[in-house]
Amino acid sequence: MASRTEELATQPSEGDDDNRGMNQSISLSGTAALTHWGVIRAQGADAVSFLQGQLTQDVAALGTQRAALAGYCSPKGRLLASFVVCQPAVDEVLLLCHISVLAATLKRLQMFVMRAKCKLTDATAELPLFGAAGDAAMALVVDVPIWGRTEDGLRLPDAQGAARAVLIAPKVTPLPSLSLDAWQWLEVRSAIATIEAATVDQFVPQMLNYEQLGAVNFQKGCYPGQEIVARSQFRGTIKRRAYLFECDGPLQVAQEVFHSGDSEQPAGLVVNAAANPDGSGFSALVEVKMASLEGGSLHVGSAEGALLHLRALPYAMTLEI
Q1: Where do the domains of the chain lie, and which CATH numbers do they carry?
Q2: Which of 26, 43, 224, 227 has the highest local Cβ count within 10 Å?
């Protein structure tokens, strides 16, 4: 039987239908330059095997036709970065990540290359990224499945009913016709968490639903933090998850969230946030104690702060508390 938390995670909360209808009136079709993303390139005969031993994803099984979500953890199992990973060639892997974590992540990965035949570089300037949404995305990834890859880019999971794709160094630079703010709002509404500088070393992958999204492979070999991530999974110690919320007031990444019944201890942390395109407030992906959803209310900054309204996740989760 599904738990109350599972029901809250997957069913619209009160007022959610009105909210979705309002947002559907906003145009979500067009392209945007993804200046908040960067690219780490791994090249060499050992590029795949090296990253296989570093990331939560099974990079060796990826192939050249698919992309995937992956995490990079500390030895304590906390996420230092998140990636969209793709393999354009047998000896080349691209790691798309938030620009604020790129430099530190690249430096750390380079420390562990040692004798492996793998060269890691910042390829952001060489491989500019563009996001396409709605009809603009479908025109570029016709018949491409979610997480499928083409010569020019890859398809991401839909968000708010809009298809999404990322173009990597397109042959013809798209004319931006979608605001970056709108694209970032779609990122939040996809409920696929992105690690930013302010949230480094805060979450084990399951706190951000990564194993629910196929970003953690429990059959592959070791990687930093693997033992802790596996222990959390199989001993049932995960008591925190990421959920979608809306708020009338402004929200910021890494902002603390409090439960109405406890003004002393934070109940969660804002993972990603963006203004709603229609001006109705903010949307956020927030990591919270699952028990905090069982009663009372959640607020930003303090137990008396702006009220958070729970919204439905765009994917199902299987979990119990």
Answers
A1: 4-26+206-311 (2.40.30.160)
A2: 224
